[in-house]
Amino acid sequence: MTRKQPRITAKPPSEAIGMKILAGSNKERALALAQLIEDLLDDLGYTDFHPKLSAIRLTIDLKARHRSSAHRLHCYGCTIPHEVRLEELQGVHRRYMQARRQDKDLIGIFFSVSGFHPTARNWFSRLDAAARGDYHLFGVDKMCVLLRRAKLIASSDHIVHTIEGRVMARPGAGNLVLMAGRFYWIFRIESKRGAAYAALDAYGSPVSPRVAISIKRLDGSLKGKRGLNLQAMEKVLLALAESGQKNIEFLSRDTKEPLSDLREVMQELLDEGFLITEPAGLPRWRFNRYSIKPEFDIFLNLARQFLDGSQRFKFLRSNFAVQMLVAGLLPYLEGRFHLKLSEEERSWLPKFLAVSPSALSYALFAPIDELLSISDELERRPLSSLEKDRLRSQHLSTLYSTLLLRYASDVQDSRFDELLRHKGVRGHLYRITAKAASDEELFFSIKGESYLTLAVPPATGIAAQKGVGTPSSLNSDTILSNGKALMHIQEFDCAIELFDRAIKELTDPSKLLKAWHCKGSCLLSQKRHSTAITCFNEALRYDSNFKEAWLHKATCLKELGDSSGAVRCARRAMEIDPAYKEARNFLKNT
Question: At 79, which helix (H) or strand (E)?
Fold first, then answer.
């Protein structure tokens, strides 16, 4: 059965996002409009502002000049309840053209918080260069671009992505709201419980109920709509993701939210389809045990909500996220990217994404039209299987390089180390290379690597780069564990150094067996067969029935040309475990 893909909502154009200035009086709204326009013009390079406000008409006439070119500016702005109509635009533009007769370099800008009516835009777009002059219309779309460039708000696409992760119902039209000098995003929601609204701050985080109420008090369009307590919903979902089934009293203590508020929040989450309940006594509201619905589509909604936010590492290490990634990630990715992963990729890719919220967010949600078109074209082309495999590898390499760049941003966060420890990782090697050249010479070539030991506090010096440390800084068990971690990432020289240290300090025969065998395995990987045999012999001194040591010794003897000796060792491994598949296959091929 094909996995159901997540809800896909067409991204609304920026102009579909409205904009409002909320204040207690028209005078305050006009002053806020003036401050907003001056901030935008400052970002565009203008200075020396001379504004004239009209609190009655909610408009501003402003004169300014450009800092570098000294060209004068004729600016008009309004925050009226409707889109600017054709006759209104024509009147303002006519005044600009009259002033331009005195100054051919005069620039004109019209800022409209409520946008422009389509007939007004069409009329303006049909003007030729002479009739239009150097005049520019700034509706909500362009104003949002300027605010985004000034880092005063997040992009509307990001905000829509965020709100879709917080509510299951399709959000209605949104507004960017300026209130008391701060920006907020407001969305109307049609949920099962009726009309509601959700409020986010300028960058997409939920606002407090107090702020949401203040917005509602000043925005008449929200009258009769209840505010969604997104802050409390976020706390509840994160707590349940971590701990599983809990009743409302536990959640109240964990989230520090009042019981009276949580009752409404829990009902909202149930109605939205995020939660399920298990009866556990009366009254139900107090004793029912809540948990997140174990469905991958629910996980996708929560991933939208948390993976790009401040709680991304906490969410990714939660029990719910771990279970959902195991259950549904691979089929989802194969369906999303139109590819069939190899067994090796199916092994490591989920583990890689499970420690990098940025990489996982890209894999789950980033636009992939270009990648899909390449993949589909590859399937249509009449190529040999070998050539298709080669091109497929190149195609996947492009995807993996993007994931690695996202991963690199997470590595810089201290919570990344904590997440690796939580996953049982003992060592982490990060290696990067960058090269560039012209057609005549090398431009630059730089490479670096960092090896992080997660079992102990970091040491200093060159040895610390591979987690070697000083003799007093690591105990023998930790040295052995770090050596095994280095062996698994094929840093054999450094692993052998640690195994040698462990062998000198260990006294437990079972651990000495592991240290000798692991050292021999590293040497075998380096094709140092004679020295490896010595290590396997030492391992067998501690346990003569250690079948892996017998088989690895057989492999070394075969490589050294001693086929009869190799067969004897492999047969000894089969005597210890008649079901030892690897030994049976070795004998068949020897």
Answer: none
Question: What span, in angstroms and rounded, lies between the C-alpha atoms of 6 and 590?
Answer: 52
Q: Give bridge partners of residue 179 from the DSSP assignment.
A: 22, 182
Q: Cβ neighbours of residue 468 under 8 Å, at least 6 residues apart? A: 459, 494, 497, 498
pTM for the full predicted model:
0.74
**Cα dist. 444→46, 174, 405, 439, 584 in Å?**
40, 48, 20, 13, 51
Rounded Cα gap, residues 429 and 411, in angstroms? 11
C-beta atoms surrounding 21 within 10 Å: 21
The percentage of residues in the chain with a pLDDT greater than 90, rounded to a whole number, is 67
Confirm if 168 and 274 have CB atoms less than 8 A apart: yes
Cβ-based neighbour number of residue 139 at 10 Å: 21
Average pLDDT over residues 527-554: 95
Residue 297: phi and psi, rounded to 5, are -65, -35
Asked whether the predicted pLDDT for residue 162 surpasses 60, the reply is yes
Strands 275-278 and 289-292: antiparallel
- Collapsing DSSP to helix, strand or coil, 226 comes out as strand
d(CA 534, CA 76): 87
Query: 73 with 42: CB under 8 angstroms?
Result: no
- pLDDT at residue 167 in the model: 86
Burial, 557: exposed, middle or buried (Cβ in 10 Å; 0-12, 13-18, 19+)?
Answer: buried
Task: Quick: pLDDT tens for 480-495.
Answer: 988 898 899 888 998 9
Nearest to 455 by CA among 436, 442, 468, 438: 468
Q: What band does 374 get if pLDDT is binned at 50, 70 and 90?
A: low
pLDDT at 1 over 70: no
d(CA 194, CA 458): 55
Q: In the prediction, which pLDDT does 216 show?
A: 96
C-alpha–C-alpha distance, residues 304 and 317, integer Å: 16
More confident residue, 161 or 548: 548
- What 8-state DSSP symbol labels residue 208? P
Closest CA to 359 of 416, 428, 414: 416
SS3 517: helix
CA angle 10, 15, 19 (to 5 degrees): 120
Q: Which residues of 331-357 are buried (b: 16+ CB within 10 A; e: fewer)?
A: ebbeebbebebeeebeeebbebbbbbb
Residue 294 identity (one-letter amino acid): P
Structure tokens that stand for 212 in this block: 């949401």
Note the residue count of the chain. 590
